[in-house]
Amino acid sequence: MKKVTKIVVLAKQVPDTRNVGKDAMTAEGTVNRAALAAIFNPEDLNALEMALQMKDRIEGATVEVLTMGPQRAADIIREAMFRGADGGYLLSGREFAGSDTLATSYALSCALRKINPDIIVAGRQAIDGDTAQVGPQVAEKLGLPQVTYAEELVAINDTEITIKRRLERGSEVVVSPLPALITVNSSAKECRPRNAKRVMKFKYALATSEMAVAEDKAKAFIEERPYLHIVEFAAADVNPDPEQLGLSGSPTKVKKIENVVFQAKEAKTLTADDADINALMVELIASHTLG
Amino acid sequence: MANFYTDNKDLQYHLSHPLMKRIIELKERNFADAKLYDYAPQDTEDALDSYRRVLDIVGEVCGEVIAANAESVDHEGPRVVNDHVEYASGTVKNIEALIEAGLGGMTLPRKYDGLNMPVTCFAMANEMVARADAGFENIWGLQDCAETINEFASEEIKMKFLPRVSAGETCAMDLTEPDAGSDLGAVMLKATWDEEGQTWRLNGCKRFITNGDGDISLVLARTEEGTKDARGLSMLIYDKRDGGVKVRRIENKLGIKGSPTCELVFNNAPATLVGDRKMGLIKYVMSLMNAARLGISAQSTGLCEAAYREALKYAQEREQFGKPIIKFAAVSEMLKNMEAKTIASRALLYETARFVDIYKQLNHISHDRSLESEERQEMKFYNRLADGFTPLAKMFASEYANEVAYDSIQIHGGSGYMKDYACERLYRDARIMNIYEGTTQLQVVAAINHVTKGTYLEQIMRYEEEATSEATKPMFDKLVELRKLYESVVERVESMDKEAAGYKDFHARRLVEIAGYIIMSHIMLRQAREMESDYLNPTKIFVKYAIKKITEAASYIEASEGSDVELFKA
Lengths: 291, 570
Prior knowledge:
The structure holds two protein chains of two kinds. By secondary structure, chain A is an alpha/beta fold. Helix content of chain A is 29%, strand content 23%. In chain A, helix 2 crosses helix 5 (196-202) and helix 3 (101-115) crosses helix 4 (134-142). Chain B is 61% helix and 11% strand. In chain B, the strands form three sheets. In chain B, strands 3, 4, 5, 6, 7, 8 and 9 form a seven-stranded mixed beta sheet that branches. Chain B has a two-stranded antiparallel sheet with strand order 1-2. Chain B has a two-stranded antiparallel ribbon with strand order 10-11. In chain B, helix 5 (119-132) crosses helix 9, helix 15 packs parallel to helix 17 and helix 17 (503-530) packs antiparallel against helix 18. In chain B, 52% of the residues are buried. At the A-B interface, helix 5 of A face helix 3 of B.
């Protein structure tokens, strides 16, 4: 019987669409990423918490985070380490640019074959794309059973996992053999806070490409402390079929973007000053029209 | 995401104070821990960066968890179940969050699993916790007790209890009894040595004990049978795991309802002696009380911040006569004064905390090696300042907390009198702050010695040696004038006291307030000089207020006859 030792959380760094200000869109109508803070995708934090709960219950298990993104996505790996993760992997390179969910799940599955985890935990969906496809696609590509909409870790041992799922009209408890992939809902327990000692311990952790441009002193420091090195995979490191990566591996094509015009039943007059516009933003976010 | 650290530029300003470098030097002792602990800093910058990051976590837990639970904790409160305290459910969540965030033992050395942070940073954490929920700050802030254990207990006791505090266990200090409140020398709880069990046994009762059912309690008890005063009292640790103490009841209070104020019955409860017998009140409680008073200054400052922000928000949102009420001069003047008092209270708090840090740390070092003569001088210097400033900080912050909370309700108008807004809770919570850990009147008793011994005057003269800027010069000149006024009224009071006994006591509060206002104004002036855009206006406003208060007190003294002592006798 294989013992569960390696838990990997799939996480994504996303623009914070929950706190949209008046600069959120550019004049051309695209998302102004510079104006939006880059954050840990909220449901991925729920996933991290569930993974950490698994670790709490299985002696000797480790939790690592895998993220695909630009160099700065290493920020969320560090944040995960502050909250309890043991380390992480950054999958980064130009080859991955323009990936849709199919290409993303392909790239992640290549990296996961290399990492070879016993359990994979992911957030249900990311707040920038809202597709909820990547988790299930990864499970399919790796031939793993999947449990979606997880809300609570009921039980776990080395061969199976029991999960309570949150469904539209109720909940159900399912048992899955391991290894498996779990996607976690926002209704699951919130992630534990950053821990003071862990923050002090891991604050200088760097991914390989960050180390390359760091000062010599920082490099030497990390070489003395291997736990501060965040593993970085370039495309070639995970042996992919290049055709299935990035834009060429992405069949999704955006045909047209339409501006939605709300048919207002009640008229509301706004003046052109910043205060009114901000107030409207706050109102729309509060009513979940935006974000 | 609310974060009470990142949204408060004052805290960030105080953390970057130049004295922090010296504090870190003393706290880290050549950064020797860096070789032993993976979370210890490598150098000064690294240490400061860690402080910022840890305070950022505190700020987030306060903003996201503790503040969100404050209202329900106020309504639900703790209960007594089977002779023990059961916290309100929100309190339990708060404690869990702080444990997960690893924020126990903030100031304790790393060998006891602590974070080894300065008192200044701990005060900042206290302030943020109090801003989120003043009642919960009591439970959290009682980790001060661990500092007392660290200072006076044997290594064996420290190894037993301190890592538990670092892991998040809570503390209590069991001092007050029905007949021993401000007069702690009258404590009667009996400690007797049990030869058979090789332990001390405690019998008797304690009253008004904050978090009385905490995991680790410091108990002031009478070990010397037949004695009746302070010299018969010792300090002992009671471990809740051993049993023997029952919670008879929890007081039903006006405010800080989440903080369980307990009446305790000790029935042969085993306890361990801390330090030397007979030194309980004379030495250990005095140290504990000073730390607790600094804690209340932080709690009060946090309450000022909360009350001011509630009022500001309401004044911006509430419209009358076609505009937000903040646009009315009467409202905005109140708000500006509230803001200035909050900044001044904070300025005095952290000035005091820095003094405490330096002398406490030198004191710790002196236990390991003998100090150089320069270090001895330094310790003495800061010890005196810390002793002088602590009662001032406690008194001003707690009085301001009451004033700012009062004005916060006033700005809310009728709505503020209802239970619908947080300001009514803040008002109730504030009311205890100028009472417990020594009333304002008792802070004056401690502070008046520093008026007569010249601690305040000497420090004011040092402030006068600091540079001025063009913008602060007029205020600076005014403060020099006011210092002369202070000297003249002190002289008057001292000479009149010789003719009319009790004259100095009669004017003590006025003298202490004058000194305090000059001191706070100088610290504010320094802030205005260093960060004009942030602090010049609040400083101008505060100095105006200080001038009013000083001249009012001084003119009262100047017009006061020796016969006033008799006139006011009851």
